[in-house]
Design brief:
D-Maltodextrin-Binding Protein, domain 2, globular, alpha/beta, Phosphate_ABC_transporter, disordered N terminus
């Protein structure tokens, strides 16, 4: 009988050991370049990440599921341990990352790009310039020159950004609207002259073909920079820091092993991924290299 108990105890010990070891290295369902993984994505930057996913999956035996959510929803899912991969415009606070800290999982944070927050108005509006002081005044409930301010989502990273900028905890209840997506903001502004919409730059640079006609009805507003000039959210102005409303896109990886999250982050931060970002109108974290080919035939003709 003692031998039986001893055999069972040893067997259980091996099971616990291999179970723990397997957890450290991953579930076996995904590796760096193969398998399946779900990534929560801040919906304000979803289009550019969808472009990355398409190219990544075309090159590797990987199946990524991107789930667009508001920043608040993503942070809640991470904090509760429901997901371990996310792409956001900020990192988790110590309190928000408590679940993973208890499991001794340190995040792998990969900077991917710089995103700009754009201001849009109906093309019929003559004034194409805006000062951030006007936005702050509006959010504090003061009078403003525009009739309404339109955000994508009350729980979005964009709303949090401007609440912090204005130093307020709650949004004004008068003439401020929020929808579910950036496309709804663009459509509202296209249909309502006098309103100002706030969206991620990428939603304007790479709209879906069927939505292009709506985007064509709105105009980008120039924003007053610290030096007093008015600038648009172009790559040059965002990269130089002259455009005053930017944020960094980051991949947060709490998998705790070398899985597909690490592979996708490396891809987006690598040469191909950074070229995709460059073409999207955002600013790559690392500027991709430029290959210059000099043909000997041209050299001979010039000599």
């Amino acid at each position: 009988m003692k031998k039986i108990y001893l055999t069972v105890a040893v067997a259980l010990s091996f099971l616990v050991f291999f179970s723990c070891n397997k957890q450290k290295q991953g579930t076996g369902s995904d590796t760096i370049l193969t398998g399946k993984a779900t990534i929560l994505v801040d919906e304000t930057i979803l289009p550019i990440i969808e472009d990355q996913e398409m190219v990544f999956e075309s090159q590797y035996d990987a199946d990524l599921t991107l789930v667009g959510m508001s920043e608040t929803e993503i942070v809640k899912n991470l904090a509760e341990g429901k997901n371990d991969l996310a792409i956001l415009t900020r990192e988790l606070t110590e309190g928000e990352a408590g679940y993973f800290a208890e499991k001794k999982i340190k995040p792998k944070v990969t900077p991917l790009a710089t995103d700009g927050i754009a201001f849009i108005s109906n093309k019929s509006n003559g004034d194409r310039k805006i000062d951030l002081k006007e936005i702050i005044a509006f959010m504090k409930g003061d009078d403003s020159k525009f009739s309404s301010l339109v955000f994508d989502n009350a729980n979005s990273s964009t709303v949090r950004y401007f609440k912090n900028l204005a130093g307020i905890e709650s949004l004004p209840t008068k003439n401020l609207y929020s929808f579910k997506t950036n496309n709804e903001v663009i459509k509202f502004v296209a249909d309502n002259p006098g309103s100002v919409g706030i969206v991620g730059v990428n939603w304007l640079m790479q709209p879906m073909p069927e939505f292009q006609s709506t985007v064509d009805k709105v105009a980008l507003l120039e924003v007053k920079a610290n030096n007093g000039t008015f600038v648009l959210p172009t790559q040059d102005f965002m990269a130089s820091g002259l455009y005053p409303v930017t944020r960094e896109i980051k991949m947060l990886n709490y998998q705790g092993y070398s899985g597909l999250g690490m592979g996708f982050a490396s891809f987006v931060a690598g040469e191909i991924g950074q070229r995709i970002i460059l073409k999207s109108g955002l600013v790559p974290f690392r500027m991709p290299g430029r290959n210059i080919i000099i043909r000997k035939e041209i050299e001979k003709k010039n000599n």
